[in-house]
Automatic annotation (TrEMBL), chain A:
It holds the Pfam family Sigma70_r2. GO terms for molecular function: DNA binding; sigma factor activity. It comes from Micromonospora lupini str. Lupac 08. This is RNA polymerase sigma-70 factor, sigma-E family. Keywords: DNA-binding, Sigma factor, Transcription, Transcription regulation. PANTHER family: ECF RNA POLYMERASE SIGMA FACTOR SIGM (PTHR43133:SF50), RNA POLYMERASE ECF-TYPE SIGMA FACTO (PTHR43133). The keyword Transcription regulation applies. The gene is rpoE.
From TrEMBL, chain B:
Residues 64-115 are annotated as: Disordered. The keyword Transmembrane helix applies. It comes from the Bacteria. Keywords: Membrane, Transmembrane, Transmembrane helix. It comes from Micromonospora lupini str. Lupac 08. The chain crosses the membrane at residues 39-61. Residues 64-85 have a biased composition (Low complexity). This is Uncharacterized protein.
């Protein structure tokens, strides 16, 4: 395996899980998430000679998010409980509840709002970087983020109450 | 715990660290994409013009504070015709493909045919411009012009950075012609550009799933010729397009 390929494999192994999960947060669907993460990695590998010394993870993340924002036109789907991984044993019930809460509140957002929420609060990127990655202004990021959080507040009470009653 | 903290916690708590993709499949597809991009970089021109190639001329490497060299292109520097698809090295204007520049501020470049299009893009005190110039290609009487990316200095002089032209077929054949990519790392890198022959009202490039509208300007000498370029804020100069389409006023693909 060429040196560049070995570096890519190492990078992809380290980055796959987060990319897939970010895509899941943006789609609510594991199959779509894996497809999107794979697409991002394919494009990253295609450009590897140009980017591997730079910020490969950032490149893959930008590719993933833009790919999803551009392609989605459908709302998020409810997460099917029969796909919940079982390896976490006693935590499965917690996982199911948390995932349902997550999917419900993220499902109330538009694709771009979801992208901003995921970039800001999952990847912990500063507003200016989110703006660059989505090719929008910082003001748009602030206003969209604020609107998204307001939606979360209005969408959350019932599910939070349900969680509190567990 | 606030909703935001709860959200952050939930997004992390539901990660599946075992998620792993088939990297063999990823790399196979990546190699195919890499090859496609190389061919596409050769342009869209292959879609309609058969064969085109780049006559790359001086790429001025100055920043705003540099001695301000201005590429003054020779009348034409033409890559040899190839049979159908050109090698990628011809597809992109680059320093490697650049003949020794004759650089001098104040020495006029090739005389523009028609009006010079001012893009409004600034490089220090210079402004990015595009314009056609006359070229001659041995054995190709229907190739008489190429599109140049240049810079206009405050004193009005225009220097050429990159020139792209067909090397086979006809330079006015309908459709896309050569796409010009500036792969220099100069701060004054030319935005990706080209021209389309036909009633295009929109030209849309695709890269990494993003669709990017090009800016358009009709050529003063032939309104069927549409000069386009991509704002460097939305498409980094030198970044290869995955695809490009033109649409008419009704949104139909041309």
């Amino acid at each position: 395996m060429a040196r560049g390929d070995a570096e890519f494999v190492e990078f992809a192994r380290a980055a796959s899980a987060r990319l897939v999960h970010a895509a899941f947060l943006m789609t609510g669907d594991h199959h779509q998430a894996e497809d999107a993460a794979q697409t991002a990695l394919v494009r990253t590998y295609a450009s590897w000679s140009r980017i591997h010394d730079d910020d490969a993870y950032g490149y893959a993340r930008r590719t993933l998010v833009n790919h999803l924002v551009d392609r989605w036109r459908r709302p998020m789907r409810e997460y099917p409980t029969d796909e919940v991984p079982e390896q976490r044993g006693a935590d499965v019930a917690d996982d199911v509840t948390t995932r349902r809460w997550l999917v419900t509140i993220l499902g109330a957002l538009s694709p771009r709002e979801r992208a901003i929420v995921v970039l800001r609060y999952y990847f912990d990127l500063p507003e200016a970087q989110v703006a660059r990655e989505l090719a929008v202004s910082v003001g748009t990021v602030k206003s969209t983020s604020s609107r998204a959080l307001e939606k979360l507040r209005t969408a959350a009470p019932r599910t939070v109450d349900e969680e509190a009653r567990r | 715990m606030s909703e935001l903290d709860r959200l952050r916690h939930a997004m992390r708590a539901t990660e599946r660290p075992d998620a792993m993709l088939d990297l063999d499949t990823v790399m196979r597809a990546g190699r195919r994409l890499r090859i496609r991009r190389r061919v596409a970089g050769g342009g869209a021109a292959t879609l309609v013009a058969g064969v085109v190639a780049v006559a790359a001329v001086a790429v001025g490497a100055s920043g705003p504070g540099a001695p301000a060299p201005t590429g003054s292109a020779p009348p034409v520097a033409v890559a040899p015709p190839s049979g159908g698809r050109m090698p990628s090295s011809l597809a992109s204007p680059s320093r490697e493909a650049t003949p020794p520049p004759t650089i001098a501020r104040g020495v006029p470049g090739p005389k523009p045919l028609g009006q010079v299009v001012d893009t409004g893009v600034k490089h220090g005190t210079d402004r990015r411009v595009y314009y056609f110039v006359r070229v001659t290609v041995p054995g190709q009487p229907k190739v008489t012009m190429g599109l140049a990316a240049g810079r206009r200095a405050p004193d009005g002089t225009v220097g050429t950075d990159i020139l792209v032209n067909d090397v086979e077929g006809a330079d006015r054949s309908p459709g896309f012609h050569q796409i010009g990519y500036d792969e220099s790392s100069s701060a004054a890198a030319a935005p990706t550009f080209g021209y389309f022959v036909g009633p295009a009202e929109r030209i849309i490039g695709t890269v990494d799933g993003r669709q990017i509208d090009a800016r358009l300007s009709r050529w003063s000498m032939d309104k069927q010729v549409v000069i386009f370029w991509f704002d460097p804020a939305t498409l980094t100069p030198g970044e290869r397009l995955d695809g490009i389409v033109a649409r008419d006023r009704d949104g139909r693909r041309l």
